[in-house]
User: What shape does this take?
Amino acid sequence: MRFVAREMMYALTELFSTTKYRIILLGLVLIAAMISVSELAVAKLFTKIILDEGTISQTMLAVLVTVFFLFFGVTRGGHFIQRIYRVRFFDKAFKASKNEVTGAKENWRWSLAFELTNLLSTFTQLGVIILFFTYLNWVFGVINLLAVLAIFQVYGKLFRNQIEAQRGFVVARNKKEPIPNVVRIGTRIKSGETGILFSSIAMLILLAMLIYLSYTGEIGKPNTIVLFFGLRMQNSNFSNISTALMRFARARTHSE
Assistant: This one.
């Protein structure tokens, strides 16, 4: 993943040339990550409402239900506002940049900015999820961390191969050598789906470990339910990363 980190850092400094806009981007990334991860808190609150429904007073139940819907509404609204604002932010950052580009490369620069933001947000989400898992149960947290590192190794190799393939397509385009769509598009889709398949296998292993730890009493029922929702969110993040990395590779090479 060091190669991925290097390419993302290069894109970050190239797209956002001033410290001001990099700080704003960091803020947007943190907001997006926290909004998404807060859904785990929503899941834990929902679990408490369902499992403790018969043991808490009607007043407390009404308060928890109200908080649940308010929290859910705030997260959805925040997610909407963050995604709308980043379009204006990109426009301001590009106008302030010393790197002037026109034509097709301008479009690829926008695509690169969106993919970079998505990846940074998703990586941050994963970091918070890993910490959350470890907080709920350190044994499962360590197992999950090892699985995440293995997935990153695979994603790093797929990304490196995709960068090389996309640069080959750019060279062919400049030489006006036709590349069939089945090759040009299929290469990117195949790499992305390969990464998704590997992360899905890892999720099955983690689910098996979660069931085992729950069966042995290592993890309580409420935390088991929350961890299950968390694993689904984590797997969704990995699916997004796998496809976003391949789109990032395409935008990165075409915007050079």
In short: The mean pLDDT is 83.
